[in-house]
């Protein structure tokens, strides 16, 4: 059976009760994390400029998180995806190397609310999307990043197609056809890495809008190809080139409906590309564990997985001197330098004055990278930092299992603390707690009530 057909059957036949309660609870906490980030993003220029652009297409009936405005469904999903992903603080499925929640939650929220469905069905469709996205990403074994594609936007389109199709009542045949249509709508380039451009931020929302479009076309009888993933010009062959030979197609459907990848999604403790976290935490550890003056640092070596070098280490001159916050979030030299100099790496370290700190930049200029021979990528995003000081000392620390990974997860209380910290940037403490209670009770309320609440229309 083609992979698309298997996914179609899964999306069509899965029932709310088929998902273990522990998985549903984890899904609600992942959604809570996403909501907090979305609220924080409303305080940044990129969000306001994107909202201004989307507003040119007119008003609608779908809520934009935190802004108190309504747009047409696809435009609201576009903005909400950008809000969740815009600070690069959103969760990651480690093996799939994909930010699945950033596309799946806004799509499920928008379509479930527009269709006047329950919050329970919203959660179920979100789980379906994450399961599909995680598995498709896993098939490629990190290959999309090597060929210049961003799997969050690319793969997210197929997950959102199944979410929208499920919520719109498509049958199994239509769900399979919709994935074929999505093959021509999916996109996401990594060219932003060269100069810190904003384009990556919009990938998850675009995946949601494209998925809704594909589902609508299939529902109305539009014909798409069948060999969506395995075909001669299917997803993997067309986007991976020679690397398609390393794909393990069995990972797409292995354990589907039995092993829940939602439980393997890692919540970020730091607001930066997940590939930087182990090295950033190693540098932070060295700062607090040892007494040294950053000006006495002679050299720094960062050991990173070979598969992530193109993303967070190259071109080295650019990474050593980031031009903006997005540049900094994808820079091993900056993340390591910030940790060594300041002993932290949070949203404050992404403000212009922090990025321009001459002491941090001096240390960043001394950071070199090497492929980590002991890397556990993609199961873990391992990292190690080795610092050579003027007095001859060599300091080193390794984070083999990155903080937040499935074997070292953030707890529910950790996620709540992160949510409250992010949400407090945009709303009062009382309002943040009210939204928190609503998210954790999502299985028991209506999706449109939940959407109005997030949009500020209580």
UniProtKB/TrEMBL annotation:
Family the UniProt entry places it in: Belongs to the PrpD family.
Alphabetical list of InterPro entries matching this protein: MmgE/PrpD_sf, MmgE/PrpD_sf_1, MmgE/PrpD_sf_2, MmgE_PrpD, MmgE_PrpD_C, MmgE_PrpD_N
The species this protein was found in: Tepidiphilus baoligensis
Name of protein: MmgE/PrpD family protein
Domain (MmgE/PrpD C-terminal): residue spans on this chain: 271-442
PANTHER family per UniProt: 2-METHYLCITRATE DEHYDRATASE, 2-METHYLCITRATE DEHYDRATASE-RELATED
Gene3D superfamilies cross-referenced by the UniProt entry: 2-methylcitrate dehydratase PrpD
Residue stretches making up the MmgE/PrpD N-terminal domain: 6-241
